[in-house]
Amino acid sequence: MVFTAFAAASLLAVFSTQPAGVWAQDAEGWYKSHPGMSRINRVNQDSHQIVDEFGRTRFFHGTNVVMKEPPWHRPLEWVPGVSSFGEEDVQNLHDLGLNVVRLGHSWAGAEPVRGQYNQTFLDIMKQQTKMAEDHGLYVLVDVHQDCLSRHFCGNGAPDWFAQPDWVARGKMYPFPLKTTPFPVDERGFPTPESLCSTVDWALSYTSVALGNAFGRLYNNYDGLGDAFAAYWKKLASGYAETTNVVGYNLLNEPWVGDTWADPTLLVPGVADHKVMEGLWNRASEQIRTVDNDTLIWFEGATLDVLSGFNNVPLGDGSKTVHSFHYYSPPQMGTIANTLDNRSKDNERLRTAGVLTELTFWMGDDKQMQGLADAMVATDAKMFSWIGWAYENLYDGTTGQPHPELAKHYSRAYPAAVAGIPTSFSFSDSSATFKLQFTADPNIDAPTEIILPPSTFPNGYSVEVSPDGSLVQHTVDKRTLALFTSNSLKDATDITVTITRK
Ligand SMILES: *[C@@H]1O[C@H](CO)[C@@H](O)[C@H](O)[C@H]1NC(C)=O
Ligand SMILES: *[C@@H]1O[C@H](CO)[C@@H](O)[C@H](O)[C@H]1NC(C)=O
Ligand SMILES: *[C@@H]1O[C@H](CO)[C@@H](O)[C@H](O)[C@H]1NC(C)=O
């Protein structure tokens, strides 16, 4: 257990001016009596931020781990050049400074035969979630999909989900992207599989067959919406008691539905309330029969600029998170502008929002500048982020990370704030981190700043204003804890500045 291994680290005597009473505060004792990770199951609807069991505001930096083909989970064993998710990986993510993984929990892997769950698969997912917990990482349980199923050169829904006769023969996938549909094998999958690379996957959503299949999911045709909701109940019953599950991400990048039957679904904002809201409620109702606590993360149409939901799933924004992506295209305009729009969504829906995917792979200068801009903007607007994706971190078969990506993953950030944050920032050139927050003296849990050793190889200096308002304690190699001093009686504005030595 990483946390207890470092619990013996001592208080740092940095401030000569610190009043004597402060030293009586028992930081080590707090960690001993609160081993492990904090439960996270509430959103502060005024600050629009996620809070933990102690009332601390929480921020997340992380990466996506999704396996899009059988066996629908990453192997546990670390082999350079092969995308895995095991001990070595969670250690790497911990060392980088990350604290969350959006972990794909494929419906296809979990329910290979309708109504029959594959417990072996579900156990492997739980094992990977537990490994993440042992290294201080939260897990966002993500039911992932792209183009829904193998009938449409996609992934996510089980093979039994879609039927070839749902659309007329001449309109089968990928009509009208191709005038003649692809030949299919006995399972209804395009054959040879190489045909799939001849269509743009994102444009595939505009094909008749794929839109039709999404429409049937939303309409609960043949109980397919119920089957999706039942899968969520199955997942939630397995995870309800799991400390490090930060949420249930209902469905990745849901398409707007059957646009051939209802073209209004293409109007920005319409699909969110017209088709998705019903399915999200259906799944959330099933989740809540077994788990009243875990946050439900919901996505809207990927193309949207502003959310079109009338309300969050089940109507209580303190128990949900709006999960959204930023890619350019399809998003027009800067990430800063997108985050401003998402803040408006948060205010209207009275919930929190998290950027659960953004471009996090090597590219040309413009793309790398975009990533640097995203890092600055997410800090400035105080949004958590999860990059796409873990496997892109590594440089081919060497097993070495790309330094240009590792540097962004290894930023300093406030994982927990014992109060209400007003701003934070990190300059990667000077390795200077600054946090301003209003400390809540009723919270006895510490503010925690992640300071990855690779970014601060010779350590760091900490300045706190007002002097003596925080008590420092090193938790582990990457985490600095700052306990609000017992001498503080009222809400107090505190500034923390940390610089590389
Ligand atoms: C269940 O999952 C395990 C682990 O991925 C796999 O080996 C097995 O083939 C799966 N069973 C079915 C019926 O798909
Ligand atoms: C969730 O809360 C509802 C309403 O308070 C209650 O009826 C239900 O039993 C709870 N479910 C669980 C799993 O705790
Ligand atoms: C933000 O929303 C406005 C509409 O209020 C829209 O015009 C603009 O394009 C949006 N920005 C982005 C980057 O999506």
TrEMBL record:
InterPro entries per the UniProt record, alphabetical: GH, GH5_C, Glyco_hydro_5, Glyco_hydro_b, Glycosphingolipid_Hydrolases
GO molecular function, one term: hydrolase activity, hydrolyzing O-glycosyl compounds
One matching Pfam family: Glyco_hydro_5_C
Domain Glycoside hydrolase family 5 C-terminal residues, every copy: 411-498
Record-level GO BP terms: carbohydrate derivative catabolic process; lipid catabolic process; polysaccharide catabolic process
Signal peptide: 1-24
Keyword line: Glycosidase, Hydrolase, Signal
Domain Glycoside hydrolase family: 87-390
Matching PANTHER family: ENDOGLYCOCERAMIDASE (PTHR31308:SF3), PTHR31308
Family, as annotated: Belongs to the glycosyl hydrolase 5 (cellulase A) family.
UniProt-recorded name of the protein: Glycoside hydrolase superfamily
Organism: Aspergillus bertholletiae
